[in-house]
Write a structure and sequence with these properties.
By secondary structure, this protein is α/β, with parallel strands linked by helices. It is built from eight helices and 25 strands. The structure holds flavin-adenine dinucleotide.
């Protein structure tokens, strides 16, 4: 196992200070290793995740070579030739487990933002004190965006949040964590080959959730009540002005509709599994409130916005992969983790084999199936 940094590198170096997992502690499970602390319903800090993964590396005696940056993987006669700091390795198979979130994804028009406005990605952001005083424009309203918008607003800075397509979820539903419902109802185990639109499922943004000790919901209604201004999707920069699309109402209705359907699925599961009486009555959330009027543009040169935080998602990085299996959008082409080059495999990508694939609790089942395929491939040669 080659790791460019240390074990749990992404959790050590690519997370902001206040980040906690949005998955509850009991859901942090790796093969033969699970959370056994006093707070199963709490949410780990990034430091605790690092410790958790480090302990797993130790108990599983994973043969990790740290400080080994892979700079090239290319096809060779009988498999692959891997170049890493420390030397070259010849191998018959390669499993790409380099992560789904290696780089922040930032729109190209960020280059047209006036230099007077500071720009940060979640990889640069650590805490509000590192930002200049004054208004902040947070772009993207998925897990990262809503969490940072709330933190920045609490720091006393006026926050404007640019909202695109998003997934709205309550923190708890009928007395249980919403991710308990995803788990128990089987939604998280829906397989990649059973989904109607796999491409869409793989592109779905992360849910509007935060793991806080208070277990509170962090949706757009909560942010608006805190004083965060909501604007539409940021579409372009023209003459130093940020232009936002005006479709907030439609975007909110879509997220509310999908939320209602998901809660219906949970309720139906509770009834058909005979467990309905264990929970409180079904709940429905108030629709997302549409602002009376939302601004369609902001003059970025006016001084109102002093910094921009791009919470517009992450993407994997395959600059080191010299095998033509990456599409024009930078996504690895694979079928359930089996990449279209003999002996090449992948793990840890969105909906690789199940909806839970890119979460910590998703790796065990995926890894078993993918390594099963790999073992079959080696045996058949
Ligand atoms: C902001 C954020 C919040 C998240 N919150 C949650 C959560 O609440 N719950 C949850 O279950 N999941 C969460 N995730 C998903 C989380 O990333 C995964 O659960 C988990 O870290 C994935 O592990 P991984 O090993 O597949 O990828 P990563 O953690 O990204 O690890 C990939 C490793 O590959 C190494 N690497 C990459 N390229 C090279 C190279 N060329 N050579 C050598 N080494 C290389 C990296 O250094 C890194 O250590 C979150 C992700 C992000 C970005």
């Amino acid at each position: 196992m080659l790791e460019r940094g240390e074990v749990a590198n992404s959790w050590r170096t690519e997370r902001w200070d206040s980040l906690r997992l949005l998955t509850p502690n009991w859901q942090s499970r790796l093969p033969g290793h699970r959370y056994d602390g006093p707070d199963p319903d709490g949410y780990m800090t990034a430091g605790e995740v690092t410790d958790f993964i480090e302990r797993f590396a130790a108990v599983s005696r994973a043969p990790v070579r740290t400080g080994a940056n892979v700079t090239s993987v290319r096809r060779a006669d009988d498999g692959y030739r891997v170049i890493a700091s420390g030397g070259e390795i010849a191998c018959r198979t390669v499993v790409i487990a380099s992560g789904a979130c290696n780089q922040p994804s930032v729109p190209r028009f960020s280059g047209e933002v006036p230099a007077s406005v500071e720009q940060l990605t979640p990889f640069d952001y650590r805490d509000p004190d590192k930002l200049p005083d004054g208004g902040v424009l947070v772009v993207g309203a998925s897990a990262t965006g809503v969490q940072l918008a709330a933190e920045l607003q609490r720091s006393g800075r006026p926050v404007t949040l640019s909202v695109g397509e998003h997934v709205r979820l309550p923190r708890t539903y009928r007395g249980r964590d919403v991710l308990w419902w995803m788990d128990a109802s089987g939604v998280w185990d829906q397989r990649y080959d059973e989904l109607d639109d796999l491409t869409r499922a793989r592109r779905l943004p992360s849910p509007q959730l935060a793991g806080t000790p208070e277990r509170t919901t962090l949706d757009l209604n909560v942010l608006a009540s805190m004083g965060v201004e909501l604007v539409g999707r940021w579409a372009a920069v023209r003459d130093g002005r940020a232009l936002f699309s005006g479709g907030l109402r439609n975007m909110f209705s879509l997220a509310d509709l999908k939320l209602r359907r998901l809660l219906d699925t949970f309720d139906e599961w509770a009834l058909t599994s005979g467990r309905d009486a264990e929970f409180g009555p079904p709940e429905r959330l108030a629709p997302t409130g549409v602002p009376v009027s939302s601004r369609l543009q902001i003059d970025l040169g006016s001084g109102e916005i002093r910094s921009i935080v791009w919470a517009t998602g992450f993407r994997p990085g395959y600059g080191w992969l010299d095998v033509s299996v990456v599409d024009a959008k930078g996504q690895l082409q694979h079928e359930g983790g089996v990449v279209g080059s003999p002996g090449l495999y992948a793990l840890g990508l969105p909906v690789l084999r199940r909806r839970r694939s890119s979460f910590i609790c998703g790796i065990e089942d995926d890894a078993r199936e993918v390594t099963g395929h790999l073992a079959g491939y080696l045996a058949g040669r």
